[in-house]
Amino acid sequence: MPDLQATAFVLACIGTVCWAVCFWWMHRISSRQDATLKELRDVTARIEKLSQVQHDLIKDVHPQVSEIKEHVQDVREVVSPEKN
Questions:
Q1: How is residue 1 annotated by DSSP?
Q2: CA-CA distance, 41 to 39, in Å (whole number)?
């Protein structure tokens, strides 16, 4: 019987050590995931900022493009050979 109790004690100690190692491992994985998610949030914020800047630039340029098209149309009408 003493051998059975000693074996049970050793197995209980091994189980406790395994739980500690597992807890440490999961904490390490969680820390890496948190760091990756923070990086992803930072990248997303930069993309959103760049997208907003691009949108503002396009909004500024768009009216100018319409004006240029109107001026080109005016010039086309003036120089067109069909007006003879």
A1: -
A2: 5
